[in-house]
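Problem statement: downstream parser choked on a complex file, so we are re-checking the raw output for the magnesium ion run. The parser issue turned out to be on our end (a line-ending mismatch), but while we're here, posting the original submission so the record is complete.
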Amino acid sequence: MPRTPARAAPCGPNEGRLVAMSSALAFPATRARALGGSALGARPLGARSKRPVIASSRPALRVARAATDAVVDKAAHNEEQAALRDEMVSGCTECTMPFEAERASALANAALADHSRASAIARDADESDDGTSKMSLRALVVGAETGKLARALLQKGATHVLVLDHSRLMLDRAAEQFDGTSSSTMGNDSGARFLRADVCDVPAYQGPFDAVVFNDSLATQADPAEALRRAVLLTRPGARVVVSERESVEADEAESSTRLDVDALVADLPLQSTLDSPRLGKTMRRSDDDRGDSPRDESSDVHESSFVDLSCGSVTHTYEVPPLFKLRDAVAMSAPVVEGFGRGSRLMGVPTANLDVDVVAEALEGMRRGVYFGFARLPEDGKHGKWCKCVVNVGARPTFADGEGVTVEVHALRDFGRDFYGERMDVVVLGFLRPEMRFDGLQALVARIMADIGLARGALDDRACRERVDESVGFQASDE
Ligand code: ADP
Ligand code: RBF
Ligand code: MG
């Protein structure tokens, strides 16, 4: 796929239709134009722009800001979207989209080609007795369109595809792509499933997903930044996140500045471009750049290397959720354990040893706020002196009105049977799990922390990770 931004080149048998249909897709032009909002009054926030297909790196933050600053009545927005899309489908006689098959195939490739989990599944199948693997590869499609993308994903190795849309009719139309054998709405059966829901409301048990594709749907979300953030939280480490927006070649310059700046939206998310070296991983510490062994700083990481594919009349960005234990340099900290907020994370079932932030200030400098995993120990405690697994939150606890300061909280995955305020704790941080977020209440936070702990355990159990610990930090991790 071309990396160099260029004007959209019509491709495949639909050649020429892009110009004729522009953002109207292949639904009747009058109906499709209503998506822009003019027929129903105000243009929805983040609605599709008719920008010419030019991929400039201009910092077009406007849409993201507008979406987050404004108080959006999300339910009303979603209903409006559903009505518009229902109307598009009910009024269409020839339900096809420009470059439909080519685009589905290109997006499925972006989502799954050379996917690390696909290789793991192939290895697992090789090693299994019956030559098949029980591992799943789950994809989430936001924006049903005609269902071709879901089919392409299944053909390219996805075992489960969940398709979301606000429009019931759109979902029904997409589901028609599947016969009874390949589609299921039941339980954990493999195949495609269709759900009328907002991406922010997808329950965690539907995932974790190995690929998420925003199929020409991010710009029409009530809050695109939040939608992306929620989607990323539903993913498994190593997952791909693909954002594709259809573009019009006839858009005027005035509208071009409202084009969604996807790179800006993902800047605070744990995503890296698929162009980053998987061996080196994403640079998480600014100090790497200070030492000059990385050509770019962390914030420009995503911007410089995001993948823009302009084929088939779309602009497509492809990112990867970093696989676990990807911190290039382990971060070592050693500090006395101090009193926290006394609100009692113990009540949450997750006691956290708060490290004295003044002591770890230097290590903290280059770290982004978020959740990490690694090993911890109480070096002065004969019984608990061995390294044990831990999760670490470096952040300001936005879920609570605690104050603004950044704290470093270590939850050791071991039962110490006592408190150890005032004692020194050593921590070696090896990997980044996710950015810190504001949750809607304690229950949601605790549920996510439990998921973090599960991911951390899995990563730290991995032999490669333990070997890396031995190499880079020079200690043997305990088996606990
Ligand atoms: P605070 O708000 O004072 O940090 P917490 O409810 O977070 O209180 O409890 C943290 C304290 O619990 C730690 O300082 C430590 O002394 C103790 N503790 C016991 N077990 C653990 C553990 N497995 N991980 C972290 N802290 C633990
Ligand atoms: N607090 C937040 O407000 N948002 C988070 O995303 C968040 N993630 C955490 C992840 C882990 C693994 C741990 C141990 C704590 C996290 N916290 C988070 C901090 C939590 O709010 C804090 O431990 C309690 O409020 C007690 O200070
Ligand atoms: Mg604490």
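For whoever reads this later: Residues 47 and 220 are 5 Å apart (CA to CA).
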